[in-house]
Amino acid sequence: MGELTIGCWRTGGFQTRPFTDHFLVIVMLRIFLLLFRLLRVRGVLSIISRLPKYLRLTWRLLWDSRIPVLPKVFVVLTVLYGLSPFDIIPEAILPHIGLGDDIVFVILSIRNLIAASPQNIVQEHARKIAEKS
After folding, report:
1. Cα distances (angstroms) measured from residue 89 to each of 21, 66, 106
2. Helix, strand, coil share of the chain (percent; to 5)
3. First and final C-alpha spacing in the chain
4. Where are the domains of the chain?
5. How far apart are CA 133 and CA 53, in angstroms?
6. How many C-beta atoms lie closer than 10 Å to residue 113's C-beta?
7. What does the alpha-carbon distance between residue 31 and residue 95 come to, in Å, rounded to a whole number?
8. What is the pTM of this model?
9. Each residue of 48-78: pLDDT tens digit?
10. Fewest CB atoms within 10 A around its CB: which of 13, 44, 94, 110?
11. Do 129 and 60 form a contact (C-beta atoms < 8 A)?
12. Could you give the maximum distance between any two Cα atoms of the chain, in Å?
């Protein structure tokens, strides 16, 4: 099977070089950084570091009848999207980015659920989670 190459212009004219996994990883990292900058999701990194507590809080908020229905539906749909074989960016084509979009959508839906919920209810559930820890 032939080697996959990338063409680029150099001072000597058009040249090709081998397409490497290293190059692909660098491109994917740049795309991820651009995605985070475009979405202005500075809070995403803090959510990832505290993910277990956020998952417990999300679970409690999903079952609380005082929380609006629409943000709950959004969380459920994004989790189903993450589990479904259909993707905006398929893992088969761009494996690292394809998985990344699923994770970003789920995190943003959790953030939306917490932001759309009444603050006193969120604090009540967070206090109960902290007492159990």
Report:
1. 19, 35, 15
2. 70, 10, 25
3. 56
4. 1-39, 41-132
5. 9
6. 25
7. 13
8. 0.60
9. 677 788 889 999 999 999 999 999 999 999 9
10. 13
11. yes
12. 68
